[in-house]
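Query protein
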Amino acid sequence: QVQLVESGGGLVPAGGSLRLSCVASGRTFSILHMGWFRQAPGKEREFVAAISWNGGSTWYSDSVKGRFTISRDNAKNTVYLQMNSLKPEDTAVYYCTADPSITAIRKTPGSWGQGTQVTVSS
């Protein structure tokens, strides 16, 4: 079992930037693929980005490609989501996820954090 704790959310104007962090504990971080999902009010959770265990592969949803960057530091058991050029439609609760399956991390990850709120004002 892995525990995930997100931080870095907040209120930012449109066009601004935020960096989310997620610290993992309880299981060997370096063998887990990591990701981010988000859920906006009244909408279903959606995939945002994922990164392979060694950082060699990354995936992004079309809605964030070119604006968001996922990265990880295995020495710190931490995954990051750098969010630039934020839009009001990026407003959501952002969840850190983990899974040993490279397929599941992008669809149905097994571990979830509690979430951090990101609000983008227009």
Residues 70 and 81 are 5 Å apart (CA to CA). The mean pLDDT is 96. The longest strand covers residues 18-25. DSSP finds no helices and eleven strands in the chain.
